[in-house]
Amino acid sequence: MDEFAIIRRLTEGRQTPAFQKERGIVTGIGDDAAVANLTSGCQLVMTCDTMTEEIHFKKITMRDTDIGYKAMAAAVSDIAAMGAIPRYALISLSFPKGTVLDKIESIYKGLYECADRFKVVIAGGDTTSAVQGITVAVTIIGEVERGKALLRSVAKPGDVLFATGFLGLSAAGLQYLLDRGIPSGEWDEHSVTEAHSALVRAHCRPDPQIEAGQLLQRSGICHALNDVSDGLASEAWEIAEASGVGIDLIEERIPVAGELLVYAQQRELDALDFILYGGEDYQLVGTMREEHAAAMQAKFREAGLALHIIGYVQTQPRGVRLVQSGGKVVSLEKKGYNHF
To answer: Where do the annotations place Mg(2+) 1 binding (predicted)?
Structure first.
């Protein structure tokens, strides 16, 4: 089977022409490049995210459909962090010759599952052979009202720091799967204990916060925004450095999911370490003026979403600190997952 036959097998019939036309596609998969109509009064928002075998996923941590779903979700999350709407995706997929095509189809099934959930058109991409391992790269093109993108560089002294949802579950789920060591083809949700299912879901099927990002963008009161891909400490550092401010995290205000607390206690580990340094939660962390926080939390509750006030933005010192129970202040290292 040649490259074009493989592409047809992976993409044909996945998204209807009517859906693609409704989303602005003029020419999609099948030509040298895709063509789409731009929305008047909007700016393009573009991002790319890559997942590589043995770096981002292993046979004992991710099923094939999860690989595709998470690759799309990670890129969509970057769009959420800008307060933008994801529109189009380009997929670059590399795999060794001899790879069973059913495996690649399953990866594409996961890609489309996530894309369809967020109404993203998969408009094209590239497929190549690789010497070893599978690599999936997802480029997302989104849009946001002109001049209204949410940046990490605009936190202001006096702001509160907020986070959506719970953090740390994905890293705990990864550790659980690594310790369990069962090949991905031999486990599913039913083989994972109920106590650990939330951790595994958080790692394998993350939930990018598009709705939360849109709420924050439309409110007009959100200052800085970032998605949590490398851990809360790392993302807070990114905001602090980009904005030239200091950030104090208040330990007792950082919410801890019950499932994470139980897992950490069972392993005699600190749940806060998963939250600060784990990553791949794809929740949002950002800042706003303190006087707007209560009203924003009410809007989130109405939407069935969570917004936690977890810290403050300071003028000095620059960097990130943890204010522990009892008032002790600890400087947090700028660390999380780092490829290099």
So the answer is: 49, 126
Q: Tell me: the pLDDT tens digits for 108-136?
A: 999 999 999 999 999 999 999 999 999 99
User: In terms of residue numbers, what domain contains 138?
Assistant: 3-145
- Give dist(CA 98, CA 281) in Å, integer: 34
CA distance 145 to 42: 4
Answer yes or no: is 30 within a domain. yes
The verdict on whether residue 159 carries a ligand-binding annotation is no
Is 152 annotated as ligand-binding?
yes
Asked whether residue 337 is marked as a ligand-binding residue, the answer is yes
The three-state secondary structure class of 159 is strand
The reply to whether 78 sits in an annotated binding site is yes
Q: Are residues 134 and 283 in the same domain?
A: no
Q: What distance in Å separates the CA atoms of residue 127 and residue 147, rounded to the nearest whole number?
A: 35
List phi, psi (to 5°) of 324: -85, 165
Residue 190 among known ligand-binding residues: no
Q: Is 126 annotated as a binding residue?
A: yes
The answer to whether 331 is annotated as binding is no
pLDDT of residue 338 exceeding 80: no
